[in-house]
Predict the structure of Inositol-phosphate phosphatase.
Amino acid sequence: MQILISEIKHWMTEAGEMIKTALLANQLTVDTKTDRKDLVTNVDKMTQDYFVKKIVAFDPQARILGEENGQDHLDKWSGRVFIIDPVDGTMNFVLERENFCIMLAVYEEGQGILGFIYDVMKGQLLWGGRDIGVFLNEERVPQPADIPLSEGLLGMNAAMYARNSHNAQIMGDRSMGVRMSGCAGLELMGMVLGRRVGYVSNLAPWDYAAGGVLIEALGMKMSHITGRKLKLDGRERFLAGTPHAYEEMLVLSQQANN
Amino acid sequence: MQILISEIKHWMTEAGEMIKTALLANQLTVDTKTDRKDLVTNVDKMTQDYFVKKIVAFDPQARILGEENGQDHLDKWSGRVFIIDPVDGTMNFVLERENFCIMLAVYEEGQGILGFIYDVMKGQLLWGGRDIGVFLNEERVPQPADIPLSEGLLGMNAAMYARNSHNAQIMGDRSMGVRMSGCAGLELMGMVLGRRVGYVSNLAPWDYAAGGVLIEALGMKMSHITGRKLKLDGRERFLAGTPHAYEEMLVLSQQANN
């Protein structure tokens, strides 16, 4: 496990340097995918290729699930699976040049074992797992207090909030305020660091795999917004929170009509 | 003018050090004002007192408008006025320990002359004015491109977005995405740095005075959301944007029923 962890940390920092270099050199080529707001850049693709090459060299048996380059679906979850989001928050990457991250999760036999979230521009690598705890760079992260919804900031998806899907607006009202950062990884990092009481969104597996391992390692909860287990297949309405806030939001979600 | 500028920069950085020291020492005492989400801390009050003392010593004739300590209204705008927000984004200050700023604006005869926004935790001081341009620390900030709404991120107020006030949701849909940071100063700093195409919110004078001077110095526009001039008196529905995006949003706002 130690070898695997130090190997992945090396990949994350090396990929971060590649991304910073490309940003500074203004070498971004931006394309759209499903619609005008669904962006991908040459840097997303290059970074995913980098990870795939490293993973294949390190563990040729492992499966890989990633956002880009047609690797976005898996039929089998047996053995070891690496889940990659080469640039999470691509819109921020392009328009803000900050507030994005690299994410990688390791699953074994369908269970999340390790998670890594790297805020490239801040130089903050959050990593850990169920059996080892969570660390920010080399400092252990304490378990956040189990605060109720009313005492924390709630990360929120804009479309769900606009439509009050699953009572998202009521969840927001009961919290100390909603925040929209445009980066799932940084919202989940915020939960780990005690800056968010929860997160409501519509996410693909690579958006929550790494952060999910980390929040669960610290006793926080996540599921489909209706309470069922996440399927790790396609986009799903996502709910996460401190145990206390999660239960409050789940009740609100189950009372909703839409 | 140079003496005034270097004096204020000195106050901003000194106040920033006081705030960081208080944060690190965990010396926050949090109270509520109008409701449970309207926070004020001992640090907001201490910082405003610091500025008031410095201003009175520097220019005893000047008037002062500030968020805290009962200095939140002015009858006369003649002569020189200092407008202070000692901690903008107090909720973030308390719950995130980042994403807040100190703001100061200088008005003369009712006109904004100088603006200062200090992102304390990032160590970024944005400052400038109509006649001198805008600087980030000591580097001149170029004029952002006059992009349309469809090409940029839109800073947004949660309550206005939830209720679709002034067609806020349609504005959001037409942009590249909405962002809610909980800090007006950082949203306006984002406009200056080309990371936001605009900002829609409900703001008091100290929330937009400094940022307003800076965005106008770079050719961007702001007004009440209906298009009339801001009154600098009490909370107002606020609209700002690149000239292109501002006009698009103003049309949407004027077409709205609420």
In short: Chain B has two domains: 2-140, 149-255. The domain at 149-255 of chain B is CATH 3.40.190.80 (D-Maltodextrin-Binding Protein; domain 2).
